[in-house]
Amino acid sequence: MSELVPLLVAAMAFGCVAMIVLVVGGHLASQASVRRRLPIPLTSSRSAGLPEGVVPNPFLASIAAKIDERKFGIEGPVRTKLRRDLVRAGYFSDHAIRLYILMRLAAVLVVPVIIYIFSQILLGQIGFYSSLAIIIASLVIAVLGPDGYISRRQRLLQREYRIAFPDLLDMLVVCADAGLSLNAALARIQPEVSKQNRALGVNLMLLGAETRAGRSMTDALDTFADRVNLDEARAFVILLRQSLELGTDIGDALRVFSNEMRAKRLLRAEEIANKLPVKMTIPLGAFIFPVILTVVLLPVIIRLLAVANMF
Q1: 85-124 confidence digits (pLDDT tens)
Q2: Which of 44, 64, 107, 156 has its CA 20 to 30 A from that of 8?
Q3: For residue 9, what are the contacts with CB-CB under 8 A and spacing of at least 6?
Q4: φ/ψ bin of 119: left (φ > 0), alpha (ψ from -120 to 50), beta (otherwise)
């Protein structure tokens, strides 16, 4: 049975190479066909000013366009949830779901082969059951890895949103005091927010695009809060909705809310600073204390050994 493992790995490697050749060959053939039909070369979509992440890599987009989501059971509520998770992780492209499927397939095919090859090189000849356990463990890592990466990206973006959100509110207050409407203020601060946080700037751009397409401001704000997935953003949307419905001054409400957000950001920074002594306990106990103990006790141990050798 141990002879089946190399054959299995060889078959998986051949499948990976065949898939890569098929995809690259199809892409080159389609590009050549397009060039023959179009007398004028295609211009990049990035020249239109769209940010990176909304416009994907042309090569990856052409590969992803050949993937049918329905064949993988991604439709209806499943597709909606996956699309929401990818947007919350900062992937706004129309091809994000197809690229996600492509990366999962590549991980399932490539990761087990790579891990098995390295295990054979580092561990030498191992038994059949050990090789099978390594392949199964690598398959589990390849299947669960993309979802773990998406969750980690969401947490990192939430942390960045919390840092940039008070500055967004400050700029909104300045625009409101200058007499701009809410739509004009959001459109004015979007380039400045994009310089500090690209993902938050893209969310503001999508918010403006929804309102220009005819969607009401309250619905567009609700969608914005769902994309950002932040408690501060939900409170911000509730504040703006109440101001729009009641007809109160948005500038005063934003000024109070901005002061509160800055105070919360300062409290979070103080909380992180207060956690540092507790977090330093483990490194001190694991690395520094043994060294100090060795330096103190080593001369005593050497003297005791010397005395013991005398007798």
Answers
A1: 888 888 887 778 888 888 888 888 888 888 878 777 777 6
A2: 64
A3: 113, 116, 117
A4: alpha
The pair of three-digit structure tokens given for residue 228, joined into one six-digit string: 């950002």
- The tally of CA atoms less than 13 A away on the side-chain side of residue 5 is 20
- 269: exposed, middle or buried (Cβ count in 10 Å: 0-12, 13-18, 19+): exposed
242 Cβ neighbours under 8 A, 6+ residues apart? 248, 253
The letter for the amino acid at 264 is: K
Q: What type of residue sits at position 143? A: V
Global pTM? 0.67
Distance of alpha carbon 227 from alpha carbon 224, whole angstroms: 5
**Is 214 strand, coil or helix?**
coil
Identify which of 131, 135, 72 has the alpha carbon closest to the alpha carbon of residue 103: 72
**Residue 186 DSSP label:** H
